[in-house]
Amino acid sequence: MSEERVLTAQEQERELNSQMEVRRDKLAQYEADGIYPFGQRFVVQYHAEEIKNDFKNFDGQPVTIAGRLMTIRSHGKTAFANLRDLSGDIQVYFREDELGEESYKHVKMLDMGDIVGIEGHVFRTHMGEITIKVNKLTLLSKSLRPLPEKWHGLKDTELRYRQRYVDLIVNPEVRDTFVKRTKIVAKMREYLTKNHFMEVETPMLHAIPGGAAARPFITHHNALNMDIYLRISPELHLKRLIVGGLERVFEINRSFRNEGVDNRHNPEFTMMESYQAYGNVNDAIELTENIIAYCAQEVLGSTKVNYQGTEIEFRPPWNRITMQEGVKKYTGEDFDAIETIEEARAIADRLNVEYQQADGIGKILNYCFEEYVEKNLIEPTIVYGHPVEISPLAKQNREKPLTTERFEAFVYGREIANGYSELNDPIDQLQRFEKQLEEREAGDDEAHRMDHDFVNALEYGLPPTAGLGIGIDRMVMFLTDSPSIRDVLFFPLMKPEDGSARNGGEEE
Fold first, then answer.
1. Is 432 helix (H, G, I), strand (E, B) or coil?
2. % of the chain exceeding 70 in pLDDT
3. In DSSP terms, which residues pair with 396 in a beta bridge?
4. Which tens digit of pLDDT belongs to each residue from 46-69?
5. How confident is the model over 350-407, as pLDDT tens digits?
6. 211-225, 302-316, 440-454: lowest mean pLDDT where?
7. Distance between CA 500 and CA 508 in Å, rounded?
8. Distance CA 343, CA 354 (A)
9. Is 499 inside a domain boundary?
10. Which residues lie below 8 Å from residue 435, measured CB to CB, with a gap of 6+?
C-alpha cells in the first residue's frame, strides 16, 4: 500500500511538471500575440459579494472587477469560470460572438489560478446563478504553477503553514479567519481608545530582557559591540511611561520567547499590554472581561462562541477562583492550611508533581495548579491569589502577605490574560530582583534579571497602576474556532523542509 502511494506521488510530480511546461508555452504564446502576461494597474470598481448582495440594483449594469480564476469550464464557443476576490466568488461568462475570435482564443488559453480583470454586465442565468457576461478580458498575471486540484485541495497541514499563500487562495475559511483576526485587533484598539488609553510603541531590542519569566533570543549589536535581546515583554518600558505621567497607555506588540513550539506556543507572538494609573487588579480584570466580550460581540455578533464543539460564554462577569481553591477542588489538597515547605513537598509527592529543592511553597503550589487545575477551567475563569514567589512585578496583598494582587484568565484550559496591581515600591522591587538573581544562580534561566534603571524609575514615583496583558493569538483562536495557534498566524515558525534545524523541534 505504501509503495502505491509513492508511485502516485511520482506520477503527480511528473504531471505537475508537464502542466507547468504547458503553462509556459501559453505564456510564450501570449507574448507572441503582443499581450503582456503580467499586467499593469487595473481599476477595480466592485467586488463579488457587493454585486451578489445587491443584484436588484446591479442587474444589467456594467461592472469592472478583478480576481483569480478558480474554475474554468469551456463549451465550444462559450465558457464559464469562477472568479474569486477578497470578498468571495462570482461566476463569469465568456462568449466568442461577444468578445471576437481573437480575444476568445485567449480565453481558451486561460488556466485555473490566472489573475484577470473583467469588464462586463451583470445578469442571472436560467439556473439562477448571478453572473457577469464578459465584454473585455485583461490578463493581469499568468499563473505558472497549478493550484491544488479542487477535489484534493490543500489538506496537508504542514504544507498549508509553509505555503500560506496557497492556503489563502484555495481555502476560503482560512482567509475568513485572518479577516476576522484583523477585525478583532481593530475592535480591541477601538475599545481601548474609546476608554482614553493612548497607543504607544516601545523598543523591541532590549539591553536587559524583562517583564516575564522566559528565555530571550540573543543577538549582537556590532556598532555598540554588545549583546542585546529581542523583547520578551514591553512591560517595564510601558510602566516607565506611567512614571512619566501618561496615565493610560497600551501597546499591541510583537514579543519573542526562546521556547518550544506547540499548538499554543510560537516563539514570535502578539500581545496587548495596557497600564492604567490609579487602578488596581480589579480594574485589570474588568478590562479583560469587557475587551474580549466587546470584540466577540462586534466581530461575531454574540458573546457566545462554539470552540471545538464546546459552547463558551464570554459575557461578564466570569467565574472566580483562587489558585489554592482550585487545587483543593481538583485534588483535595489544602495549601491554605500548610505552613512549611516540607508540607508543600509532601503534597507534591502525593500528587506526583515534580519540583526542585530550591523551590518554595509558591512554586510548588503553581506546579500543582498547572498539573491538575488548568485543564478543568473551560468556561472563562479569573484565577487569583498568586504567590509572591512567582510574581516578581506584582504588588503584595497586604491582607495575605504570601500572595499578590495578581490574576490570570483561563479559557478552555488555556491562559488568555495576565494582570495585576503593579508593584510600585522601589525598595520591595529591588529586593524581588535580588531574589530573582539568586534563583538564576541556582539554575533558573527564566528568572528575572536585575534592571537598575527600572528601579531608578520607580524611585521617582509610579502611581498605583493596573497592568494587563492579553494574548491576541490565543484570543483569536477562541473567536475563530481554530485548534492551533499556527492557524491564526500567517507565517508560523517552521523547521526548514530539508530538516537542517538542530537542537530542538516542534512539540505537539
1. helix
2. 94
3. 404
4. 999 999 999 999 999 999 999 999
5. 999 999 998 999 999 999 999 999 999 999 999 999 999 999 889 999 898 889 999 9
6. 440-454
7. 19
8. 15
9. no
10. 392
Label residue 284 by pLDDT band (50, 70, 90): very high
Q: How far apart are CA 305 and CA 368, in angstroms?
A: 30
Regarding whether 312 and 254 lie in a shared domain, the answer is yes
Name the pTM for this structure.
Answer: 0.89
**Are 61 and 183 within one domain?**
no
Cα 307 to its chain centre, rounded Å, is: 16
Cα–Cα distance for residue pair 44/202, rounded to 1 Å: 38
Pairwise CA distance, residues 508 & 486, whole Å: 12
Residue 225: left (phi > 0), alpha (psi -120 to 50), or beta? left
Which range of residues forms the domain containing residue 8?
2-147
Nine-digit cell string for 237: 518600558
Residues 48, 87 within the same domain: yes
Length of the chain measured in residues: 508
214: domain CATH number is 3.30.930.10
Give the total number of structural domains in the chain.
2
Give the separation between CA 307 and CA 253, rounded to whole angstroms: 26
Residue 378 lies in a domain: no
Pick from 333, 451, 470: nearest CA to 410: 470
| H helix runs in 48-116, sequence order | 48-53, 55-58, 96-99, 101-107
- Residue 328 has phi, psi (to 5 degrees) of -65, -40
Which phi-psi region, left, alpha or beta, contains residue 278 (left: φ > 0; alpha: ψ -120 to 50)?
A: left
Nearest to 110 by CA among 150, 153, 67: 67
Contact, 434 vs 455, CB < 8 A? no
- What tens digit of pLDDT does each residue of 342-351 get? 999 999 999 9
> Does one domain contain both 218 and 312?
yes
CA-only gyration radius of the chain, Å: 29
Local confidence band at 500 (pLDDT 50, 70, 90 cut-offs): low
- Are the C-beta atoms of residues 374 and 330 closer than 8 Å to each other? no
Same domain, 204 and 259: yes
CA–CA dist 298, 263 (Å, integer): 27
Cβ atoms of residues 229 and 217 within 8 Å: yes
Confidence of residue 433 (pLDDT cuts 50, 70, 90): confident
